[in-house]
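Hi there. Long-time user, first ticket. I'm pasting a complex I've been working with (about 189 residues overall). I'd like to know whether the download I got is complete or cut off, because the file seemed smaller than I expected. Thanks.
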Amino acid sequence: MDEFAEKLIHGRVHVSPKRLGNPGPDAGQKNQILLAANAAPDHGRMMPWRFIEIGQSSRNALGEVFHQCLLDRDQSATPIQLQEAREKALRGPLLLLAIANYADDANEISKEEKLVSLGCAIQNILLSAYALGFGSGLSSGKALQSPILRSLFNLADHEDPICFITIGTVTQNKPGRVRPGLAEYFSVF
Ligand SMILES: Cc1cc2nc3c(=O)[nH]c(=O)nc-3n(C[C@H](O)[C@H](O)[C@H](O)COP(=O)(O)O)c2cc1C
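Hi, the file is complete. Here it is re-exported in full:
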């Protein structure tokens, strides 16, 4: 394999949003990163996904939702935990929400296939960010299942929020995980 491709695929690691700081991608780099999503495999060409950027001026609104979601599921959450929940929305210069779109009038393509397409689009985003010198991390959490979050982003019934993508400059390196060996996930029939 070409050395660049090898480095790109195996060099990308999950970086916690806590360790992603400024600078983030500039406008041109952001376009390049987002345009990589449209090269994802997409059975039936349904574009079963979309991405929303949570701009700096909207971070507090998302923080408020994280705070409320924690309170809804744990009334005994401490003020520190609630503050931490809020602050999660402030991390990283570029924050995206990845949304699966299951709309399919003919019911031709399964939900699972649509999620695979979204996963590929996300990986293209992560690899493009990495190729431009940025770190990235995915985050999920219980708030993604909350109706308040759905309503904040005005999601349609046929859409589901899947995970957040944070992109920025790596402020602190940590060793990546040991990746599984081939024998753990491959066999010949
Ligand atoms: C849909 C999805 C959601 C994720 N959510 C989280 C998360 O909430 N917190 C976290 O630490 N990592 C999260 N991750 C990242 C994984 O922990 C990470 O990819 C895994 O540890 C493998 O590490 P690597 O990406 O460096 O190979 C998520 C990954 C995926 C695919």
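A couple of notes from our side: Strands lie at 20-21, 49-53, 94-101, 135-139, 159-170. Residues 46 and 104 are 8 Å apart (CA to CA).
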